[in-house]
From TrEMBL, chain A:
<keyword id="KW-0238">DNA-binding</keyword>
<keyword id="KW-0731">Sigma factor</keyword>
<dbReference type="GO" id="GO:0003677">
    <property type="term" value="F:DNA binding"/>
</dbReference>
<dbReference type="GO" id="GO:0006352">
    <property type="term" value="P:DNA-templated transcription initiation"/>
</dbReference>
<protein>
    <submittedName>
        <fullName>Sigma-70 family RNA polymerase sigma factor</fullName>
    </submittedName>
</protein>
<dbReference type="InterPro" id="IPR039425">
    <property type="entry name" value="RNA_pol_sigma-70-like"/>
</dbReference>
<feature type="domain" description="RNA polymerase sigma-70 region 2">
    <location>
        <begin position="15"/>
        <end position="78"/>
    </location>
</feature>
<dbReference type="Pfam" id="PF04542">
    <property type="entry name" value="Sigma70_r2"/>
</dbReference>
<dbReference type="InterPro" id="IPR013325">
    <property type="entry name" value="RNA_pol_sigma_r2"/>
</dbReference>
TrEMBL record, chain B:
<dbReference type="InterPro" id="IPR027383">
    <property type="entry name" value="Znf_put"/>
</dbReference>
<keyword id="KW-0804">Transcription</keyword>
<dbReference type="InterPro" id="IPR041916">
    <property type="entry name" value="Anti_sigma_zinc_sf"/>
</dbReference>
<protein>
    <submittedName>
        <fullName>Zf-HC2 domain-containing protein</fullName>
    </submittedName>
</protein>
<dbReference type="Pfam" id="PF13490">
    <property type="entry name" value="zf-HC2"/>
</dbReference>
<feature type="domain" description="Putative zinc-finger">
    <location>
        <begin position="4"/>
        <end position="37"/>
    </location>
</feature>
<keyword id="KW-0805">Transcription regulation</keyword>
């Protein structure tokens, strides 16, 4: 579809406004190496489909759906592949209880929040990167981007039950990888973590 | 009545209001008397918030420059 000059200008403005969010989503879904390419492909598809966007106020959401579709088409096989993870291990893991049992901040009266405050944004990104795509994507689309579960199922072209199951397992995997990452990267003070406490004074970013 | 294990398994769905009415009520009833699971609930809420607050990182300058040029060139696409 050939766009009019004013449509092209509107799409370009939308793309400029949404670039940080689009790149962040692409980086989370596809990883740093492929993120730029995914954004470019999404913008090309957006050019083809811009005429079908009726509500320009919904443009930001619309671009994200296109970007998720681009990524889905690249990893379609992996999204549907049988799971290869030892599920029992993951199902039983609770980060909350692991923190209570291991007590990495023995002098803290807010153990769980102290643990979370040790994570920078880059740390959280790295933990997400460690998850297999089929668990990472529903988690990112649901909890970072705020899409409803049914919409995620449509975007990824997966049955709703599959997405619910991937979300459930993804949450458990995310918790386990938070713990593993903290132990490996020196975020726990009683393991000599050089970085532990770096965020002191930064305040809890997650307070509701 | 449900066990702590079952309640904890459903906490994120509970926060999402994604459970059936019956399961939503069962978790609510469990949380009404189980202090430990209330702690788990607050932690799950904090984890969700942590994910949300990392929503947008920066775009590296070189990537931003290339993508900006790409956007500028969109009006040359057939």
């Amino acid at each position: 579809m050939v766009l009019t000059a004013s449509d092209t200008a509107a799409l370009q403005q939308l793309a400029r406004d949404e670039l940080p969010g689009l790149y962040a989503l692409a980086r989370r879904l596809a990883g740093r190496n492929d993120a730029e390419d995914v954004v470019q492909e999404a913008l090309l598809r957006a050019c083809q489909a811009f005429g079908s966007l009726r509500d320009h106020q919904a443009g930001a959401r619309w671009l994200r759906v296109i970007l998720a579709n681009v990524w889905r088409d690249r990893v379609r096989k992996d999204l549907r592949a049988p799971r290869e993870l030892p599920v029992d291990d993951v199902e039983r893991f609770s980060l909350y209880r692991t923190l209570v049992e291991e007590d990495p901040f023995p002098y803290s009266d807010s153990l769980h929040l102290d643990f979370l405050s040790a994570f920078t944004d880059d740390d959280v990104d790295t933990v997400l990167d460690r998850l297999p795509p089929r668990y990472r994507a529903p988690l990112v689309l649901r909890y970072v981007e705020g899409f409803a579960t049914a919409q995620i199922a449509r975007m990824l072209e997966l049955p709703l039950g599959t997405v619910l199951s991937q979300l459930h397992r993804g949450r458990r995997l995310f918790e386990r990888e938070m713990w593993n990452y903290a132990a490996e990267c020196g975020l726990l003070p009683d393991q000599g973590g050089a970085r532990a406490g770096e965020r002191e004074g930064g305040g809890p970013r997650w307070s509701a | 009545m449900i066990s702590c294990g079952e309640a904890v398994r459903h906490l994120w769905e509970f926060l999402d209001r994604g459970l059936s009415d019956e399961n939503q009520r069962a978790v609510e009833e469990h949380l009404a008397w189980c202090v430990r699971c209330c702690g788990e609930l607050e932690f799950a809420r904090s984890l969700r918030q942590l994910l949300r607050t990392t929503a947008e990182g920066g775009v590296p300058d070189d990537v931003r420059n290339r993508l900006s040029r790409f956007i500028d060139d969109l009006d040359h696409i057939d």
